[in-house]
Every structure is written in structure tokens, then in C-alpha cells.
Write a structure and sequence with these properties.
alpha/beta, Rossmann fold, UDP-galactose 4-epimerase, domain 1, 6-stranded parallel β-sheet, two-stranded parallel sheet, 9 helices, globular
């Protein structure tokens, strides 16, 4: 089995590649320096016939990045997606395209169920990024209609696990919480967290996500499928778990309600997933957080 992976150097990409290697796949996963996907001809030299293309690459970061660079996000991500889809049509029509969606593409009101992925207004603070992901799905659908190519789009809740690059200034929320509380615990200082702490988030361990993704790829095509944990927690709840592992008094945490918080809640409906693969295994949240803390003991 030959597989091409865009964005293979990212957090999800590294875990996916490991799982594909265990399966015996022959993998091509160029870095952004080897293959600049914003350039129209960047993929032309990849002429092997691939069985699957995992398109993970996207230009985004955590925190308020989407608020600061909406125009650039639109231009860069539209170029990336257009170039990947064009290469798929012209050189890799035998391959199944597997893309990553985003929960922020869902409308702010109502359940986050797949039939509503393209409906309504997405989260305002993440609007541009959300629309590029919706446009990617529309591209997949249009290409299927005209050319008969096969695809799958999976929508993850926030991924966590070991091996996340924690050197960036802006991290996804769970890694940011761990870093802030860890630093505060070393000096007995107050940890300052963004928002009032009552915004809710859903986490799925990256190994659980990859396992479900690979299962789905063998079962489903031309569909959008959510992959999540099936439960969410408040930021205060996550912070309390982290504090218990770090022996830090959670009463020392200060919540800054003037800071960016994003969506108030993002809980994916995973009934479609469970109907396809049964009740999925999930790493216990407490165990997963403990593993991250141990992995970043520096």
C-alpha cells in the first residue's frame, strides 16, 4: 500500500505515519521545505501511484491566530487545498483522498452533527479558517460528482497526547493549561488562564483518533464523519485534573475574562461514528493528561 501524507511533520501527521508504518505502508511525506503546497507545481514530481492521500496540511495555529491573520489564512489555505485537489485529479485519480475537517466549521447554535457541517454561520472568531475547511469539503463533493473520485472527511475534536511540540508561544488549550500551571507550581505563583473557566472543550487522544480514522477509511467513502470523545468538560475541570497531578492548589488559579476564549462549547455528535465502528475505545482523560505531564517534565 502506497500512501502520501501532506502535513506529515505535524502532531497528527507523526502519529498517523507511525500507525501506517506498523501496517507496512510505503509512505511519502515531504516536509514543507521539500514541497511548498502553496506553489502550483509543487506536487508534480510525485508521480508514484498512491492508494491513499491523507491531506492534513493547513496553515493555522492555536489561540487568537485566526483573528490576527484572517486574510492570509484564506489565501494560504485556499492555495494549499486547490493545489492538492488539482494534483489528485490530474495525477492521482486512483487514490482515495482523506481530509481533516474542523469542529469550528459547525454553526454556533445546535448540535455538531455531520448533516449540519455546511449549514449556518460558523464560530465568528474562527470564521475564515472554518470556511476554508468547508470549501475543501465542497471541493471533494464537486470532484466526486464530475470525476467519480473517492474521499473521506473526518472532523476531530481537539487532539492531545505525547509528542506535541510545546515550544510555541501559542498552544492548543490543554497544552497551554499544563504549561501555565506547571510554571506557576514551580514558584508557588498564581496561574493565569484565559476566560472565566466555564467554556467547555472536548479532547480525544491522538492515538484513539488515528485508530478510528484508519478503521473508517476501510469502511466509508464520500462521507463526513466526526471523531470525538463523546463528552466534554469545563476548562476549570481540566485545570483541576492538572493541578492534582502537579500538587498545585487550584484556588491559586486566576481567570482573566478579558482574554480570547473562542467558542463556548464544541462537543461533537459521534452517533454516526459509533454506528459504523461500534463503541470506540478511549484513553481515560486522567491517564492521558498524566502522560503529557510526564512527557514534558523539563
Amino acid at each position: 500500500m502506497r500512501v502520501f501524507v501532506s502535513g506529515g511533520g505535524g502532531f497528527l501527521g507523526r502519529h498517523l505515519i507511525k500507525a501506517l508504518q506498523v501496517m507496512g505502508a510505503e509512505i511519502t511525506a515531504p516536509s514543507s521545505s521539500q514541497c511548498d503546497l502553496t506553489q502550483e507545481t509543487s506536487l508534480a514530481r510525485y508521480t508514484d501511484a498512491y492508494d491513499h492521500i491523507y491531506h492534513l496540511a493547513a496553515w493555522t495555529q492555536a489561540g487568537d491566530f485566526c483573528l490576527r491573520f484572517p486574510g492570509d489564512q484564506w489565501l494560504v489555505n485556499q492555495k494549499i487545498n486547490t493545489n492538492v485537489l488539482s494534483w489528485w485529479i490530474s495525477q492521482q485519480s486512483q487514490a482515495k483522498m482523506i481530509c481533516i475537517g474542523t469542529s469550528c466549521a459547525y454553526p454556533e447554535d445546535g448540535p455538531l452533527v455531520e448533516s449540519r457541517y455546511m449549514h449556518g454561520e460558523p464560530t465568528s472568531s474562527l470564521y475564515t479558517y472554518a470556511l476554508t475547511k468547508r470549501m475543501l469539503v465542497q471541493g471533494l463533493r464537486a470532484i466526486q460528482l464530475q470525476y467519480g473520485l473517492a474521499w473521506l472527511c473526518v472532523v476531530p475534536s481537539t487532539l492531545y497526547g505525547v509528542g506535541y511540540h510545546s515550544g510555541d508561544k501559542q498552544l492548543h488549550f490543554i497544552f497551554d493549561l499544563i504549561r501555565k500551571i506547571k510554571i506557576a507550581s514551580r514558584g508557588g505563583e498564581r496561574a493565569e488562564l484565559w476566560g472565566d473557566g466555564y467554556q467547555r472543550r472536548e479532547l480525544i487522544h491522538v492515538t484513539d483518533f488515528v485508530r478510528d480514522l484508519l478503521l473508517l477509511n476501510n469502511l466509508v467513502q464520500n462521507e463526513i464523519v466526526n471523531i470525538g470523545a463523546g463528552e466534554d468538560h469545563t476548562i476549570r475541570g481540566f485545570a483541576s485534573l492538572i493541578c492534582s497531578h502537579l500538587k498545585y492548589d487550584e484556588n491559586l488559579i486566576a481567570y482573566d475574562e478579558t482574554k480570547y476564549v473562542g467558542a463556548k462549547q464544541k462537543l461533537l455528535d459521534i452517533s454516526k461514528l459509533t454506528s459504523m465502528i461500534g463503541k470506540p475505545y478511549r484513553v481515560k482523560l486522567d491517564d492521558g493528561i498524566a502522560m503529557i505531564i510526564e512527557d514534558n517534565n523539563g
